[in-house]
Amino acid sequence: MTTKLNINKNTRIRHPEKANKPDTLVLRKPSWIRVKAPTSQGYSKTRDIVKSSGLVTVCEEAACPNIGECWEKSHATFMILGEVCTRACAFCNVSTGLPNKIDEQEPYKIAAAVKKMGLQHVVITSVDRDDLADGGAGHFVKVISAIREVSTKTTVEILTPDFLRKKGAIDTVIDAKPDVFNHNLETVPRLYLKIRPGARYYHSLRLLDKVKQRDPNQFTKSGIMVGLGETKEEVMQVMDDMRSAGIDFLTIGQYLQPTRKHVAVDRFVSPEEFKGYETIAKAKGFLLVSATPLTRSSYHADSDFKELQENRKKRH
After folding, report:
1. What is the tally of structural domains in the chain?
2. Are 163 and 207 in contact (CB under 8 A)?
């Protein structure tokens, strides 16, 4: 049954569809998943730049466990199109509701921040904007263009929504020629209705396949979470599906429950199991694989991009 929300356009709600759900048990994290609270000067400097620029990062919104390490090195993943998502995935900590208008100055703010931080590689992601005719595709293009105007040597990686039912949106973003086009499948097909109800597994696969068909030189990337109740066989099938779509780079990380209102962790996958997934994925032909408990989409994205380039050269 669908819950009707009585909200205006400026309302921001943390997962309204979970408001009446009972709290789930939060499993105690094993030793290999724990991280220290960020306290470094580098972290503070990055935080100050982000805040003074009036920007949003997925590092904060998604409660990323790697924020201390990444921000210490001046690596931040910018989240465009606001901080309110039109969908409510069961795993995600980003707010759900009706978003505000797009900040037309955001591309220039991000470009200025990229230059100030001296980023050689930057990752741009966004909330889902099902309320927009193009799903926000045009705004992605403006951000890519603005960055390249002021920081010509910076490579740009995008992590996009699925642009479901937004005709022509995917083509628009592909034609902006990002250096890496990332779109996460998130989980195995069987769990989509529970974990990612607003999305469609095969649509996401087709999106990534279309990137390769339209521009073979663009690196494609996708990731999944484990610890949600998937089986090893299902994970390997997703790998095969990704390779059929020509995906270059696979990331696999441990799902961590943001709050008691989110879907519970089924289990914590051991580092040894992650190593096994990495070995299998490399054998299947991915150019690059990152599979660790703390792997996230943009974790070590700068060094990973260089490795992607090197691995492609070795194969040709």
Report:
1. 1
2. yes
Residue 20 forms part of a structural domain = no
In a domain, 71, yes or no: yes
**pLDDT tens digits for 223-252?**
999 999 999 999 999 999 999 999 999 999
Does some domain include residue 16? no
* CATH label of the domain that carries residue 51: 3.20.20.70
Q: Give residue 134's domain range.
A: 38-315
Task: Record the pTM.
Answer: 0.86
Confidence of residue 261 (pLDDT cuts 50, 70, 90): confident
- For the ranges 21-25, 139-143, 254-258, 299-303, the maximum mean pLDDT occurs at 139-143
Which tokens is 237 given?
């099938």
> Other C-beta atoms within 10 Å of 173: how many?
25
Cα–Cα distance list, 67 to 38, 75, 126, 167 (Å): 7, 9, 17, 35
Question: Which residue blocks in the chain are alpha helix, DSSP H?
Answer: 41-52, 58-61, 67-72, 106-117, 137-150, 169-174, 192-195, 201-214, 232-244, 271-283, 301-315
Backbone angles phi, psi at 241, to 5 degrees: -60, -40
Establish if 4 belongs to a structural domain.
no
